[in-house]
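Reply to dn_fold:

You asked what the input looked like. This is it:
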Amino acid sequence: MADQLAPSLATRCAVHLFFTPLPTKLSSRRRVPRPWKLEQLHTGRDGFALLRLQTVAADRPRVLLVHGWAGDALQMRPLGEALAGAGFEPVLMDLPAHGRSAGWRCTMPQIVRCLFEAERRWGPFEAVVAHSMGAVASLHAMAQGLRAQRLVALAPSSSPASVLRWFGEAFGLRPELLMRMRARIETDEAMALEQFEAPWLGARVAAPVLLVHDRADRMAPLANSEALLRALPAVQLHTTEGLSHRRILSDPTVIERALAHLVAGAAGARFKRSS
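and this is what came back:
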């Protein structure tokens, strides 16, 4: 009814809800444990936070770790600590409106802007390890020139267009409203949602990518990784059983597989010879 009486207002409200992480960052915000140090950064439009270990040498190869929707940087801590033990310097990222970052709204273009700002401040990064929505945003950033030799994509999420369709189904939104939402999103963000689809990404990301996905993941179907497997030129897929969407982040076998991927490249080999 609201859509029919005030379509512009209904569109604006629906877009606002679509970009609001639920549960909110206050429910997941945790105190930063020592020896991790919090740094607040800003792109000029978006605020975000980075967590860095104070106990590792600054000349180590840096790896950026990016969480997913409604998560926070400390979800990536097991991977980060494993990276530190393997001789890398981990940098954990709190996306806009997540964890300890500012704001209450988060979009894919916001995340991409923050990835480039993190690179400007602490890059270039040897690699990126990213989960769910963060994995898709990281792929897009690499397609646009983010410098990273390798990527580990853990349970990559569905594309924004697919998520928008499921959002509409969950709230019983009319197709006309969903069409207006997509048009408004693409206009406001000056970016077509097509740019987050597997074929578009696969044509532009040449770096080796390791996909890790659980077969029973209900939040991000395995089909997401299978689409990327078909599209990307240098890619491997490792599937797991019984880890679901988030336990994959702390599983010892997954962490071991991710580390093997990161040290397998030429830059990793040079680092191992010099350490």
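The longest helix spans residues 108-122.
Hope that clears it up.
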